[in-house]
Amino acid sequence: MSRRGELMGQLLEALRRTSGWSVAMSQVAAERIGVNTTDLHCLNLLSDGPMTASEMARRAGITTASVTGVIDRLEGVGYVRRERDSADRRKVVVTLLTERAAADVAPVFQPFVRAWRGAMDGYTDEQLELIAGFLGRTEEVFQSEVGRMRATEREPGRAAEREPGRAAE
User: Fold this and answer.
1) Strand partners, 93
2) Hey, what long-range contacts does 76-85 have (CB within 8 A, 24 or more apart)?
3) Contact call for residues 53 and 74 (beta carbons, < 8 A)
4) At 116, is the pLDDT very low, low, confident or very high (cuts 50, 70, 90)?
5) What is the pTM of this model?
6) Three-state DSSP class for residue 8
7) Is CATH 3.40.50.620 what the domain over 3-121 is classified as, yes or no?
8) Residue 94 contacts by C-beta under 8 Å, 6 or more apart in sequence?
9) How far apart are CA 18 and CA 14, in angstroms?
10) From CA 152, how far away is CA 135, in angstroms rounded?
């Protein structure tokens, strides 16, 4: 195997492991905050600013029917506010209530952010730029693949339509 092939394998393996730890981190954080992981994911998305329910569903990779339940739960515990879109009354705009999130959610992640900052201290600005670019591309791949999976989830022979517990043949 070439050096490049070895490096690509190492990177893909590291991404796989990091993805697993990210899921574990989200589960533990959600438990500490008192929400489920999908709700926490949507809170994270809303930290980018208000968005419509359909935009939140798209960005979270969930159905529009599911996002209604997410919004109901998050509104019920005081993390979000929903309002009708002033331009299109059929749409709902969801806004993060930042004071509540800062009080309950931010403290759970502050140690993690401090640890990340410490881990990045040894990198030059150029290296950080490279890493940021790589992570941006990684995000694009995830977005594209979630969209592709959503578009093909109902195709015959797909795992989503197999009987529960039955392996692919």
Assistant:
1) 52, 83
2) 77/34, 77/35, 79/35, 79/43, 79/104, 79/105, 80/43, 80/46, 82/53, 85/52
3) no
4) very high
5) 0.78
6) helix
7) no
8) 46, 50, 51, 52, 53, 56, 71, 74, 80, 81, 82
9) 6
10) 26
3-state secondary structure of 74: helix
pLDDT bracket for residue 168 (50, 70, 90):
very low
Strands of 22-135, DSSP E = 51-52, 80-84, 92-96
For tokens 């015959």, name the residue: 156
Tell me if residue 81 falls in helix, strand or coil: strand
Nearest to 101 by CA among 28, 50, 147, 40: 40
Chain CA centroid to CA 108, Å? 16
Q: How far apart are CA 30 and CA 94, in angstroms?
A: 20
Task: Give every CB contact of residue 42 below 8 A, 6+ residues apart in sequence.
Answer: 56, 60, 67, 70, 71, 74
What tokens were used for 121?
A: 């201290």
Give the tokens for residue 47: 């930290």
Write the DSSP symbol of residue 91. S
